[in-house]
Design brief:
With 63 residues, this protein is mostly helical. 78% of the residues lie in helices and 0% in strands.
Length: 63
């Protein structure tokens, strides 16, 4: 589920990388793959920050 969420966030961060062009050239395919990898890394970083904030909030509530 976390991976699905990461892909959804990545598509929001860089929609052009995830729009699914029909028949891109090899060069364009490589560029798209790099953009997808980059946006997925950013999405996972965003989710990690959100998760850490949620975890911090839970710890302070329990104290």
């Amino acid at each position: 589920m976390q991976n699905d969420l990461a892909y959804q966030v990545a598509a929001i961060l860089d929609p052009k990388a995830w729009d699914g062009q029909e028949r891109p050239s090899e060069r364009l395919r490589v560029q798209i793959r790099h953009r997808q990898t980059s946006s997925l890394k950013r999405a996972r970083a965003v989710l990690a920050v959100v998760a850490s904030h949620l975890t911090i909030g839970e710890e302070t509530r329990d104290a």
